Structures are given as C-alpha cells and as structure tokens.
Amino acid sequence: MKLNTKLFIAGAAALLGSTAALAQTVQQAPADGTTQQEHQFRHHGRHHGFLGPRMVEKLGLTSAQQTQLASLKSNMKAEVGPVRSILQTRHAELKALWSAPTKDRNAILAKEAEIDQQKGIIRTAMVDFRIAFGDLLTPQQKAMLTQMRADRAANGFGHRRG
Q: What is the DSSP code string of 58-124?
C-alpha cells in the first residue's frame, strides 16, 4: 500500500475511535424529567447552600435554632421564588430585544431597569435573611460563622455570579 493510503486509514481509525469515546461520555437526559442543566444544578451544584446540614452541624445549632432557620429559609424561598420566575421572564424578553433586527435603545434600557428592580427585591430578601439568621446565633456561633465565611472566601468561594 502507498504511504498516503496508510495515513488515510490510520487517520480514519483514530477519528472513529475518538468519536466512539466521545459518544460514551455524552450524558443522557435525566430520567426525572428535568433538563440536564437543572439536574446538574440540583445534584452537582450548591447542594444545600452555605447553610446546609454540614454547616448546621459545624455551628452546633440547637433544635430550636434549626426550626427557626428552616422557617427563615422557607419564608425566603416563598418570597424570592416568584421574583426569580419574573426575572427569568424579563431576561428572555431582554434577549428578544437584543435579537431584534432593529435595536430599540429605550426598550432595552427599560427592560434592564425592570431586571435591576427584581434583583433588588432578591438582594433585600437576602439581607433580611442574613440579619435574621445572625440574630438566631449565640456570640460564639457568630464568631464561628464569621471565621467560616472568611475561610470560604479565601478558598475562592466568596465570589458569586449575579
């Protein structure tokens, strides 16, 4: 066989092998009906947030504190959930404005202002939550939480997208 034919066959075999390997690594959609992105966020993202079971254990929260924390979380989710849905809709509307053949500057700026307003509602809820949570803690737990937050920020977990 000629050298060109041998190189062609070797290249084709390598391409087929890499395609097969790639096909094996592609993940199937989850069986629970969620999208791949939702599944990954739920199962591989922020498992329980910064105040999950391990954090509760490290802080040594009493059962009364745990009950109050659960109530705070529930109230915050009830307040923020609908706002996040609105925010998601506003982002889709903004994307449509940017995708339009003719850009309407005033409409884009108005939509940005609506998005900022919704984000402000979420920020306010988060501030209220953090203050209320801090009020539940003993001085020792507050000191421990402050140290844990500092350690977490030092390890690169302090910056969030937003």
A: HHT--HHHHHHHHHHHHHHHHHHHHHHHHHHHHHHHHHHHHHSSS--HHHHHHHHHHHHHHHHHHHH
